[in-house]
Specification:
homotetramer; alpha/beta; Rossmann fold; Dihydrodipicolinate Reductase, domain 2; 2 domains; 13 strands; about 30% helix
């Protein structure tokens, strides 16, 4: 059995990793850290694990992590994660980092957007951006995977094949994204209180300042072969899980809705987790809750000659921990769907 | 006291009319119709009125409406409303029609989008599109007000002054709108069931087919002085009330965020119900629940040279019944805020 | 105009006081305190007040409160409130204290349940427990009103008339209460996060340890003329506002459902805010959102010979700030419904 | 592979059966019926199955069911289910009936509570009430299992061992139950609309008239060895899934909280799906969403000498389809947990 470790196990992505790994046929969770809850049984922190996992939270001691784990998921916040990842990699561990610390190729861009000097810039070149649908082969031979952000996953999966195929204009792309509240994490914040959220919605981080922008543009630019800059507006929706990105763009001359759908279908033909909806249908985040799927749809507004893509995921699964498990499976040579063959709990 | 009648009083806009009119200093509700609930006390249909309104639902008999009411609100569905409005107008009544039947100037466009031949096309030219901020003087001297749709209210209020001032490009406008479930009304529908909605969101009517489009474009075209066509995508959000429209557009050369905000502030300077937020702030629908306000914000994405407007209303108040009361006040010469001086219930 | 002050204006009960007082025909808010937000406009803290109240939060300085206000609402937490109330009373101010500090007649019971020595035990005898339906005359001539807790309001209003009339057994009363999340206040707490609450419910404080018990039993004992002890279980429900108490009890021999309903109806006959539902109907908290009503229903289980009472209120209105305004009106000789003639926002 | 059929596959319990059986290691779904959706792919009805189940809904033709299935789940409404179950049993099929049609031993009681004459009363004696924790051995050798109701599951699991052990009074038991909306099914009903439910709660079916009462009392009476009659009040909570029953009762003289907890722990010691919480903890329905667990807690109110039990399940899983799969496993000799080893999706 593969021994999995989770750093920062008591946030929502940590909890989701535990849920998925409990279901993993080739591995088991052997080590979980959570400074704040050190010494507590995980079932005391998350009652859903009370009957299924007998493990207590540890303080993070790198030597112990190295001793006890084959593959480590870091669900620590950015800035903190890069304090530990270097040593783990040096010790020969495989690491999937769910923070933003290794997503950007360029440490200066990291510093500009996150306001922190990077501690291990030398690792950036060997870290692979963990979108398996795009970087599968690189991930297989890597040691360090930078697990993508939730918004980026929804947006890049929709746009990458179209930019790659050069069938859409790279100018003027707009992503209007809507996310459930778990995306804000489990930290105490006035804006995450039930009574502040329930019954309303709002945009935030308007005008091109959200930290997910540089990774979105980095990956889309690779697809396009030139610099892509997009407009991105996130919104907070009163629901636990789910992201829907509604993406507006211009197809190149002569490119039809059908052509776009076909390009997406071909690109994702072999993919277990990306599904292109038939014409006339749109995705619902509810149908994806707890699963690693991304559902994509393509719509054509003939009145304005504009293409609309809808991309839906569960932000905690394909947008975080599910994708992390998918990446871990690739790192380890396991079947890619191991631990991820789940159907949405509905309603 | 002015005698108010409500046709179709047992849907959500009907209920909201009752709530507001109960609070009206110059009038009282004298007649409410609801075929399905004829004979029932309104407090049996809506328990919130049990202690405050002793009135039973009637079958709709036009002669009685004429006899009993000075001003009639029609909250009937489109198609049905136009069966009665003509007679009421002929009898000299003032009418605020909340349906779509009198919103479009052109009966052929009505037929094209609603699939119905118009029964009283001769009334279209005398009906005024009921956005007081734009058509106040016309409304004052009218008999028939076509109360705007909820999405149109949120979108037109944001864009009208800017198109009028010729400071934005009329091409390429995108409105990505998010609405609470009450916008779908109180009719039985699988898509409106709690368990189908709670915990998820989805877009609908993609690609330029939503029936609110023609009225949006009709009014925006008047502002621009030429044909305006926009991209509009509605989304269903798991909350009772509220609409947020996030609107993407291109300012004309040299037009800054500040200029746009200033134009809006000047246009709405005297308006009791439209509020422009200061730079850096965004609206939250929750802060408007149950009120007749529209909150607008302006944002500039310097990276993509695109302007983003956010427009928030309560779909049942400013987006329907509150605006209807505002229009009624204008028709009747009452103070415009009569019945509408309410603060949001929060949380 | 009466000058109202609010100590602790930026919690949910503070916000609800502002909403109601904005609507008050005989007074205006002149002074609000909130140490954490001192210097901030109230509209920056609660965006719903942005357009309707131009007032900034002050640090609490007792001399200024005395100078600027005629009647003071204290929405401070228990323990903190009693630091200030004494001086206000000494200065001749009327005070409605929404905390628990003056609800219990006996300072030792206060200390036993709240773990604090009472700072002004001498005021306890002059403080009136602010249930106007029971203590109206005493409130009218008082200076200090101890505004009841939310659960107690729902439970006492249901039981007081029946114990008073000696028609139910005082032994074996069970109140199973369900509350919305705003009852937990606006403080940062893991248990109040949206993602911890949404989609689930749970009981808490089981086994007779909730701090609302002593005031419930104190008032019920006064009704019964002897010591009443009840079983009380609170539950947290995923909604913003509302309390429903389902109360199980034994009628005395020969007492029918109709008799019980009649006793309640007679007791509350003149009351503007308590409504007894007809046989066969039950209250819904949704119909009371934002209002000062209490709806009561009576049910008989003939199979088990047990009576069931249902009592619904809005925990922030009749359960806190609405009742506080009602008490203030009595203290000031205003019409009791001033500021409180509101209908529920529904849906 | 065992061939599973589902009659009435497009309600919420039908959908939950599909979700669980997709995960079943020893069987596959071969036949699903839904008259209203006959001919439609299940993925068109429930988008969550789009990528995982390629099966279309059939009209219910008993001969085909017999031909295509080894074990049949009937998720048809009561009254309809008994039209088909007899033939299936006659044909030698194993049947788990999720309706109420075979839960009551006595056809007259069935008629009294459900208002229908029983079509196959002769089958009642061979049908086993499907609570595996109580009737495991009988289920193993049965052909027809009457799957318990959701409220009964939560209540009987809490009380059965205590009545059996004669350590509680059989008089005066009260179950105050709270259920998510999915318990009302997927039928169109005003009371199930999002806008009618969201933001409020209410009791219903008060006074001993809910149809789950006879099966609760039938099974509790078997435990006690004499007639048990209880007070039961259901409430509708604004959440998708989950039931919490808060149960009030009197222990027999000398019986302590610890004794009660010990009796429950011993009774359920070997049970995979029933978990007794340690002293001082209470269950949260959220931690059980999508799982087959029942969490029980025991509390003592020393002030009133009353015992409080809390029992939480997911109404669609342990309260319906999960328990049905558990029963099917017993009927078929599969491991009891097959298809049911799931952890809650949280948040």
């Amino acid at each position: 059995m593969i021994r999995f470790g989770i750093l920062g196990a008591t946030g929502y992505t940590g909890g989701e990793l535990i849920r998925l790994l409990l279901n993993h046929p080739y591995g088991e969770i052997t080590y979980i850290t959570a400074d704040r809850y050190a010494g507590k049984q995980i079932g005391e922190v998350f009652p859903q694990f009370r009957t299924v996992l007998d493990l207590s939270c540890k303080e993070l001691i790198v030597e112990e992590v190295i001793e006890e784990c084959d593959l480590v998921f870091s669900a620590l916040p950015h800035g903190l994660s890069m304090k530990f990842v270097g040593e783990l990699i040096k010790a020969g561990k495989k690491v999937v980092d769910l923070s933003a610390d290794y997503r950007l190729d360029d440490s200066e861009i990291y510093q500009a957007w996150y306001g922190l000097e990077h501690r291990t810039p030398e690792l950036l070149s060997q870290a692979v951006y963990g979108l398996p649908e795009i970087n599968r082969e690189k991930i297989k031979s890597a040691s360090l995977v930078a697990n993508p952000g939730c918004y980026p996953t929804s947006i890049i999966l929709a746009l990458y094949p179209l930019l790659k195929a050069q069938i859409i204009e790279k100018e003027g792309i707009i992503a209007d994204s809507k996310s459930g509240v778990s995306g804000a994490g489990r930290a105490l914040s006035l804006n995450s209180l039930f009574c502040e959220v329930e019954g309303g919605l709002h945009p935030y981080q308007l005008g091109g300042v959200h930290r997910h922008l540089p990774e979105i543009e980095q990956e889309l630019s690779k697809a396009a072969g030139e610099q892509v800059v997009i407009t991105f507006t996130p919104h907070l929706i009163p629901m636990n899980r789910g992201i829907l990105s509604t993406i507006y763009l211009q197809p190149k001359a002569g490119i039809t809705e059908e052509k776009v759908r076909t390009v997406l279908m071909e690109f994702y033909e072999q993919e277990p987790f990306v599904h292109i909806l038939p014409a006339g249908e749109f995705p619902q985040t509810k149908a994806l809750v707890g699963t690693n799927y991304c559902f994509l749809s393509v719509h054509w507004d003939s009145r304005t000659k504009r293409l609309i893509l809808c991309s839906a995921i569960d932000n905690l699964t394909k947008g975080a921990s599910g994708q992390a498990v998918q990446n871990a499976n690739l790192l380890l040579g396991c079947p890619e769907k191991a631990g991820l063959e789940l159907t949405a709990v509905y309603p």
